[in-house]
Write a structure and sequence with these properties.
The two termini are 22 Å apart. Helices cover 24% and strands 37% of the residues. The protein has four domains: 198 residues, no CATH class; 100 residues, Quinohemoprotein amine dehydrogenase alpha subunit, domain 2 (Lipocalin, Beta Barrel); 78 residues, Immunoglobulins (Immunoglobulin-like, Sandwich), CATH 2.60.40; 118 residues, Immunoglobulin-like. The protein has an eight-stranded antiparallel barrel. The chain has a four-stranded antiparallel beta sheet with strand order 13-15-18-17, with no helix packed on it. A four-stranded mixed beta sheet has the order 14-20-19-16, with no helix packed on it. α1 packs antiparallel against α3, α2 crosses α4 and α7 packs antiparallel against α8. By secondary structure, the protein is an alpha+beta fold. A hairpin with a 2-residue loop joins β1 and β2. InterPro entries: Cyt_c-like_dom_sf, H-AmDH_asu_dom2_sf, Ig-like_fold, Ig_E-set, QH-AmDH_asu, QH-AmDH_asu_dom2, QH-AmDH_asu_dom_III, QH-AmDH_asu_dom_IV. GO terms for molecular function: electron transfer activity; heme binding. Keywords: Signal.
Length: 522
């Protein structure tokens, strides 16, 4: 019964995470210490100077602190209102967060990039990453004693973990205590120069108010661009208004609110059309980078980069490739743009179609003999964006190369999790080296991944691949039409065949069951 409640609670945490994280600095600064004292001191002993046992010896992201408070509610009976929880998350994330450099390489967990294939060392993967992402470990900081407490907590809360895969074949507890604890304390220490320096240099939230030019890309939908207007609200809160469009002309417009944690961790809720989308960005040095994704379907998301007005910056060129001997329309996206762009050797700007500080749209022609390769383009004095010239496609890769979709619905409470794919074309540069071109239109299909998948008729039961590269999995629950009435899981090859040229690539898709434990950090 306890584990059932835990699954329900952690799943609901994932759904309400962004809403729970919206709070103001003023409220947190004023009431954070009192909430901490009133709600936490019953179990966590005061140690002086507004510090408490366990709590004051950890640093985490906003999502990490939200999960900790949720665990106190579920496992230890903590009674706390939504407002107090928001206040406490804000207070702790500001006071005991992570420096920007400490989140590099593992932000995919906060951004809900759930198809990421992690590459941690074998010991961390086998000791910790077999149950949850390695990023969840890397996004917290503790001294050795606290890492030891964490190991003991795991064993006490989940005693069967010593008998599961990658633990029953070894002395898991001695390895965890004697080998992993010192390693974690060294790699993810509580006190670091990066954190000390960030606390001194942390900017005020109000510097983010203003207009932001943005560019992005959503798998299966394409490039997007526009302007996001940020208005200051109380404390570290903001009002957000977005006006933009996809490359195919579909509007990308909406409004909502956001909050800044720890000087750079931006979290927002924006309703785009009829869809609520979460924003998880790192806001640093006049630039925002991260991901926007649908609140109810985190697999539907877009990469996002934005530059603030007043700081000239070239963000992207859309599309980012041109074929030798062809003419196409290109759009440069950035902030403080002016003048005529230089697209590099062998590429001529034939017409400037539109020009503003945020967007320059041109017609460009690549010479027939333009050497295939990457050009660094410039807009006045601004550089940093590349345009690829290619002559032919040599290879097609399916992106992502490995993906997981999940059955759902069919009378149940859990929605289906789609697979979403694009065909990434590759050529060769003038030296014969591999050259990434970009995403090109393709025809999509699925096939059995192996003989067992063919025998089980996975193509028939696991779901349907649509023309746009979206795979919609089957319904949840036992299927009477399948052998032994199994569910609609499957093991599939994803086939992309370019519409122009017919080159073909393959990816791997696992269609599996629902994810019941779905916390903010996977």
């Amino acid at each position: 019964m306890r584990m059932t409640r835990l699954r329900r609670h952690t799943s609901s945490l994932a759904l309400i995470a962004a809403a729970s994280l919206l709070c103001t600095q003023a409220q947190a600064a004023e009431t954070g210490p009192s909430v901490l004292q009133n709600k936490c001191m019953g179990c966590h002993l005061p140690e002086g100077n507004d510090t408490y046992s366990r709590i004051s010896h950890q640093r985490k992201t906003p999502e990490g602190w939200l999960m900790s408070i949720g665990r106190m509610q579920t496992m230890h009976g903590l009674k706390i209102s939504d407002d107090d929880r928001r206040t406490l998350v804000k207070y702790l994330a500001d006071r005991q967060g992570l420096a920007p450099s400490e989140t590099e390489g593992v932000r995919y967990a906060m951004e809900r990039r759930l198809n990421t294939v992690e590459h941690f060392d074998a010991k961390l993967s086998e000791t910790c990453g077999r149950c949850h992402s390695g990023a969840r470990v890397a996004l917290q900081r503790r001294p050795a004693k606290e890492w030891e407490h964490l190991v003991n907590f795991h064993l006490g809360q989940w005693p069967s973990l010593e008998y599961q895969a990658q633990s029953r074949d070894r002395d898991w507890l001695p390895i965890a205590l004697n080998e992993m604890v010192p390693e974690l304390a060294k790699r993810f220490a509580l006190e670091t120069p990066a954190w000390a320096d960030w606390q001194k240099a942390r900017p005020k939230a109000e510097v983010l108010a203003g207009q932001w030019s943005f560019s992005g890309h959503m798998l299966t939908k394409g490039d997007v661009r526009g302007v996001m207007t940020v208005g200051s609200a109380e404390g570290d809160g903001f009002k957000v208004d977005i006006k933009g469009s996809y490359a195919d002309g579909t509007p990308f417009q909406g409004s909502g609110s956001a909050i800044l944690y720890n000087g750079y961790e931006w979290r927002g809720n924006v309703k785009v059309g009829d869809t609520t989308m979460r924003q998880v960005f790192a806001a640093l040095d006049g630039e925002m980078k991260g991901r926007m994704y649908e609140a109810d379907h985190d697999e539907r998301g877009l990469d996002f980069t934005a530059a603030k007005e007043g700081k000239a910056r070239l963000l992207a060129v859309q599309p980012s490739f041109i074929k030798a001997g062809s003419e196409t329309e290109l759009t440069l996206v950035g902030s403080g743009l002016s003048g005529k762009p230089d697209l590099g050797a062998g590429i001529e700007v034939t017409h400037v179609l539109a020009s503003s500080a945020n967007e320059v749209r041109v017609k460009a022609r690549a010479a027939v003999d333009a050497a295939p390769g990457v050009r660094e383009i410039s807009q006045g004095a601004l550089k940093g964006v590349n345009l690829t010239v290619y002559d032919k496609v040599e290879e097609v890769k399916v992106v992502p190369a490995f993906s997981i979709a999940r059955i759902g619905e069919n009378g149940g409470s859990t929605p289906k999790v789609q697979g979403r794919f694009e065909a990434e074309a590759w050529g060769k540069d003038a030296k014969g080296e591999p050259l990434r071109i970009g995403y090109l239109p393709a025809q999509w299909s699925v096939e059995p991944y192996n003989e067992r998948a063919e025998e089980d008729e996975d193509v028939k039961f696991a779901g349907q691949m649509q023309d746009n590269g979206i795979f919609v999995p089957g319904g949840a629950g036992p299927n009477p039409e399948r052998r032994m009435m199994t569910n609609n899981a499957g093991n599939l090859k994803v086939i992309a065949k370019l519409e122009d040229g017919g080159q073909q690539g393959e990816g791997h898709l696992i269609v599996t069951v629902q994810r019941w434990n779905n916390p903010p950090l996977p």
